[in-house]
């Protein structure tokens, strides 16, 4: 698991470093990730926040477009940006679709023998990457971890967090998500992924990889923030920019891929209030990084409350 | 010159809108640009800051990666993001190199007959785009304009600003640049561009398109901010991230493409002090958008002083 530095860029007084290493959990393939170390990492170990990106993304999208690095520098928090799937496994069909296979690992451990050697992003993110960073003696305090993500990565963040709590491990202190796939057993993206990656299909996923199902059976306190976009907004500024009848919207919400209300309802039914599970509708935004960057600082500050408590 | 809306994204409470139109100055080709309108544009006309991007870029790079939109929303400033060249002129050889032709218009008006019909980014940015926006009745106050840019776009920003002052037009109140090509008649990129686009070659460029030459002959007050990166920095945080012997750096500075010291010396020789021409060396950064985004808010605030005066 020896780490190789691919590139580094100074940003907001800290360093964004891209590393690669041969990943055992991904079947021996090379895996890339980015790590942002804030300026304060020179004087003490810093807490770490993992950002999981969405379908088709790599370790770069969040680092380049999320607007996270400035707030993380201010708060003294490291950010880990993993990739979204193994790359180059050579499995038949893995590059055919944008929503399955390469770029679409869904942060699970595959049990279908066809994918089980390589598609293990769950263990890659929760176990292997922290171990690799620790082995490289990077200045990170692994007793202080949180996680967030976007879309498929929002699904990943919620399910990794909830699984950890459910199994008593408490690896992450808090979780947040932008427009997460919130109830994947009931949406086309999730059904396709689970049917493909898991021997037990949707039934297997229901136990392990569905945030709405997981929150139903949880008893412990949680710290959850979700931002999503449910409606187009017809506002004055849209009217000013031509095509006055159209606001923007999250088309994947409209298609029923995200289902955040299902997660919210399950959380409320399980007794979680607005303090523990905060779900906010942000009208007029869409599924893009323009939406994410607008609320990026807000999410960093949310996690900072717990990481620095 | 009728404007067509290609897409829009809500960001930081405002709207980023991509438009296209048939550009007369670019020989009748379709031209794209992005316009960010801050939330305050719904209640009053707002000042406008033009951002010129560097080699190989489009109208998207600055909007996605610059970190400008949040500060512009706060300050109530619109940002115009033009493209970097005409697209699809069909001129022999225009797509052969990344530093000449498509994506490399150098913000000049070509006089070489081969390019003169299409490569007129100078007039496109200074005259045509403001006219197109005004004709669409967008809520912009064109008496309050400033300009900034990166690398080739830093060259563009400086030369458009200085030309405007030199000819008494005062179109822009202030200019800033990240790692600008500051003395292009003396660097390989500039020499290649000027020899290719201009009938009079480097002699013609010396009169019109070289910031260092232009500042020498200027008498009027100026408001100029330049950030550049002259040195690798071997600091503690680089040491922590493996390969302890390497900091980051701006490789194009090292290659002699930027020459900001020439501009600084010319400005001081012409009598401009640190208040009017502020040139800052930011050590340890590089030529990327990680550098730009680190100082993006700073540049917006610099321009805000003049745009809202």
Automatic annotation (TrEMBL), chains A, B:
Record key words, sorted? Cytoplasm, Hydrolase, Serine esterase
What Gene3D superfamilies would the database entry show? alpha/beta hydrolase
> Where, per UniProt, does this protein localize?
Cytoplasm
The record, for InterPro entries, names: AB_hydrolase_fold (IPR029058), Esterase-like (IPR000801), S-formylglutathione_hydrol (IPR014186)
The answer on whether this UniProt entry bears the keyword DNA repair reads: no
| Similarity remark | Belongs to the esterase D family.
Q: What is the protein named?
A: S-formylglutathione hydrolase
Q: Which organism is it from?
A: Somion occarium
Highest classification ranks of the organism = Eukaryota, Fungi, Dikarya, Basidiomycota, Agaricomycotina
């Amino acid at each position: 698991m020896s780490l190789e530095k691919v590139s580094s860029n100074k940003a907001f007084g800290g360093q964004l470093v891209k590393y690669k290493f041969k990943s055992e959990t991904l079947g021996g393939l090379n895996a890339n990730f980015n790590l942002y170390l804030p300026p304060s990492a020179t004087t003490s170990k810093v807490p770490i926040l993992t950002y999981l990106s969405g379908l088709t993304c790599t370790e770069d999208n969040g680092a380049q477009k999320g607007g996270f690095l400035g707030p993380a520098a201010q708060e003294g928090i490291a950010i880990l940006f993993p990739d979204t799937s193994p790359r180059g496994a050579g499995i038949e069909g893995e590059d055919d679709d944008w929503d399955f296979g390469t770029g679409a690992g869904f942060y699970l451990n595959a049990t279908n023998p066809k994918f089980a050697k390589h598609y293990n992003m769950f263990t890659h993110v929760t176990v292997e990457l922290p171990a690799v960073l620790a082995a490289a003696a990077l200045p990170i305090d692994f007793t202080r971890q949180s996680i967030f993500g976007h879309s498929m990565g929002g699904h990943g963040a919620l399910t990794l967090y909830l699984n950890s709590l459910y199994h008593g491990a408490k690896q992450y202190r808090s979780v947040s998500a932008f427009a997460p796939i919130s109830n994947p057993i009931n949406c086309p993206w999730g059904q396709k992924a689970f049917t493909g990656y898991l021997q037990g299909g949707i039934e297997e996923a229901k136990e392990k990889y569905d945030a709405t199902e997981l929150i139903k059976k949880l008893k412990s306190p949680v710290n959850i923030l979700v931002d999503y976009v449910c409606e187009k907004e017809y506002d004055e500024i849209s009217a000013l920019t031509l095509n006055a009848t159209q606001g923007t919207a999250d088309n994947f919400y409209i298609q029923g891929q995200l289902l955040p209300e299902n997660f919210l309802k399950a959380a409320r039914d399980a007794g979680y209030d607005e303090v523990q599970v905060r779900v906010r509708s942000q009208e007029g935004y869409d599924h893009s990084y323009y939406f994410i960057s607008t609320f990026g600082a807000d999410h960093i500050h949310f996690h900072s409350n717990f990481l620095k408590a």
